[in-house]
Amino acid sequence: MHFLDKVIADVDKALRVVSGVVTSSRPNPAALAGDGLLNDAEKRHSAGLMRINHVGEVCAQALYDAQGRFTQSQPLKQQFVHAGLEEEDHLAWTAERLRELGSRTSLLNPLWYAGSYVLGTIAARAGDARNLGFVAETERQVELHLTSHLEKLPPQDARSRAIVEQMRVDEAEHGAAARALGAVEMPAPVRGAMKAMSKVMTAVAYYL
């Protein structure tokens, strides 16, 4: 693929991600879950949590696209493509759940995507082991974050919980795959910075 074709493909992908025009390749796990009765406050709370999860998937798409684009390793490129497809499922599922809850995706999706693409590019330029280490640490933090959401979601919101549970399983597998491919542990300051950025994102995305 020529450079201009790659740029066009990347821009098209970015526009689809930030606008929410994506489809899943796997059935939505919420399809088999009952739609429990939620009052208005519970709907707003579930929507806030699912908006955070949707933003996380917007960021994941940007990270994996950049990391796959700029790595020189073919096995890594294939892993990023595979993981990116599963993350795209998450993106579609969370967007669908937000619509069911009468809510919307984040107004700041273009900003989340652009910032994550820059981070993914930096990670890829740091070499394969660090690139994979960034993935492993990201997925570790995301898995913990999803576990906390299972505790925070209303117990009767079975549809949101089914989606989050499947996301947690997939994220754990992505982290394990990165470690198997040779990920190195990120230095403590980097891990701390990643956690701090995540806290800012979640605090803002809950409302915006």
Give an account of the 3D structure.
This protein has a single domain (about 40-205), classed as Ferritin, core subunit, four-helix bundle (Ferritin). It has helices spanning about 5-20, 40-70, 75-100, 110-125, 130-150, 160-180, 190-205. The model has no long low-confidence stretch (mean pLDDT about 90). The longest helix is centred in the N-terminal third of the chain and has 31 residues, at about 40-70. The protein has 7 helices and no strands. Helix 2 runs antiparallel to helix 5 (about 130-150) and helix 2 crosses helix 7. The protein is an all-alpha fold. The protein is about 75% helix and about 0% strand.
Question: What features would you highlight for this structure?
Answer:
7 helices; mainly alpha; single chain; 208 residues; Ferritin
Short description:
The chain is an all-alpha fold and 208 residues long. The chain has seven helices and no strands. The termini are far apart.
Main β-sheet, in a few words?
none
Number of helices: 7
Q: What is the mean pLDDT?
A: 90
Overall body shape: globular
What percentage of the residues does DSSP assign to strands (E)? under 5%
Assigned CATH architecture: Up-down Bundle
Please describe the topology of this protein.
Elements: H1 3-19, H2 40-70, H3 74-100, H4 109-125, H5 128-152, H6 158-180, H7 188-205
Helix pairs in contact: 1-2, 2-3, 2-4, 2-5, 2-7, 3-6, 4-5, 5-6
